[in-house]
Description:
CATH topology of the largest domain: Rossmann fold
Structural class: alpha/beta
CATH class of the largest domain: Alpha Beta
Distance between the termini: 51 Å
CATH architecture of the largest domain: 3-Layer(aba) Sandwich
Largest sheet: 7 strands, parallel
Number of strands: 32
Helix content: 25-40%
Radius of gyration: 29 Å
Number of domains: 6
Amino acid sequence: MSRFADIVLPLAQPAYTFAVGEGVQVRVGDAVAVQFGKNAVYTGVVWRLHDTPPAKGTAKPILKVLYDKPLLSELQMRFWEWVADYYICSVGEVMRVALPSIIKAKARCEEEFSEYTPKREVVVLLVAEAFTEDVREKMMRRAPKRYEALCAIENAGGVLPRHLVELDAAALKALCKAGLVEMGERDYKLNSEWSKTLLPKLSDAQSKALKEIRNGLSDKRVALLHGVTSSGKTEIYTHLIEERLSRGEDVLFLVPEISLTTQLVERMRGLFGESVTVYHSKLTPNQRTKLYTDMLSSESGNFVIGARSALFLPYKKLGLVVVDEEHDSSYKQTEPNPRYNGRDAAIMLATLHNAKCVLGSATPSLESFANYLSGKYGYTRLTERYGGVEMPEIVISDTVRNVKRNERKLHFNKELLDGIAERLENNEQVILFQNRRGYSPYMECPSCGWSARCPHCNVTLSAHQQKGRMICHYCGYNEPIQHYCPNCKTGELRPMGFGTERVEEAVAELFPEARVLRLDGDTATSSAAYNRIIGAFARHEADILVGTQIVSKGLDFADVTLIGILNGDNLLASPDFRAEERAWQMIMQVAGRSGRRDKRGEVVVQTAEPTHSIYATIGDYDGVATKLLAERKQFGYPPFVRIVKVTMRSTNQKLLVDASLQLGEQLRNRFGRRVLGPVSPLIDRVRGEWRVELMLKVEVESSFAKARAILRDEIALLRTTKEFRNITIICDVDIL
């Protein structure tokens, strides 16, 4: 009987059926090489084995089975299927982000196709029978360094990687000649050994919180740890992690951005040794592939710290998932599919593995807080900073009042100027937060109002003074800064608004004696650049750090006692139902960088709307959450409804409008008033493509799975119209 395999390819396509040749041994989860299209050869994953030939055409044969172990376990396949189903995409699109690029190789033809071959490491093997007591005594007297090296190899079980043997090549060659060691090779292995050390001693408040978390996890899958900034949440995590590692289980520690891991990894490796593994998209393809294949060979006991992509690693016995800063929007993938939320996917991954999940934040998302209120999550609260350090004083500075009194200089109100001067005098440090990079958001002619715009996107070009360029932050288009208006030929273009680059310039003008560093997307272009800036500031090689939201996350500086938030109104200006929640979270997270040791910190928030309700509830999480949850319930927004945003894109604007109107009508016939749109978004053209959006709201009491299935069907129906087939349609579930 003929055998067939449904194989998932890293494409936005369903699984395709291929023939399994005589004598070919293939398993579900195996990686295989197959020809797809005229000549191209892809790596695919065997999803199902069966004896049913394809309905049309002849099934092409599997060319080759790759690797000696399946790439995916049954649990991983179930997780991929859940991601694809929930976030309305194909399993092939999940494969594109889930597997390292090298392990899913493709080529233009079969001759060019090559599978991943793991690199091997050189090891030094001790010849135990030659390392006699007489030899030991002689070497201790005559060659103590070589003796220490031999003892190190012996203590490591007789085998040690060459790079860990502290001897030069000549010394090793001499030991080989003497018959004391031999050189060999082996595959690199993920080190799942971990050295148990003394964990940090917990305060009474932390010990109580740890006990509450354990109790909460006894009958619930998820626990929410709500602790103010610098309350010592990480120390609590370490005790939970140690419990799982000591049982031989895997642990995953998720962070929203990999730039946050430097200080965290150092702390964890100090406690758990080199078994701590870091995984994220900034690693080289070889590094990611090596780590993935190592975990395939490792039984369990792995401790992974990573960004959301670490969810797709091959865990064998996952016992605990920690999601730090669970509120952070960086957990949501925005491009490309699957547009998944790392926090929510982490909870599902833990559920599939029968593991526990701990969410931590000083400013929990309203969704997580609502899950606690409904009894779905366990909940623990830490209201005091570790060591009894006071929370910072928050000052709301009225920008309009400062202008009227002539007390504002450049971008700084008097309260902030006085605070900076005082800190510089006391040799303390300051962080200035402005959530816009570049010099200014746009340049404008005061005579005719002209401003430079991107030819591919419906946005203005942002000025970057140091680069001498005006840059589109959506597609990257750039051109030289213009100083005179090309429209009226008379006006001199002026910068409107200000970004971090302009703030840095203003600080240098007002405080010429201050040493200033800038941390944003233009300066932190790599992990090395980020670490260099952070390290310099931590060593007090600078007095003032100017930055975007990067400075709000996970940083711990002993000497920072003042935070300046230069434009609180920007945080509230977004036409988004989450604007107030995000603004409050951002202010509190930035404020948390201040006064983390023995001196109380201060935060100055500059705003033209000092009476806004968000400022009245600064520091009062329950007050903010109660107010915003009531508004969300009244107007039908998460967590009381689930939202799917449907974005349609095309270079043909008229065709796009026609297609969006038809899809809107189809959806309204099925969902009624739950469908909003189609409407043009605020930025309706990006990279030359026009955009139109629809929104579907589904009450939490209704079946979201059924709603997603209907949405898939209606989109498929629209695509049966020939002229609409090339329109890109993207579903974004649980928009952030």
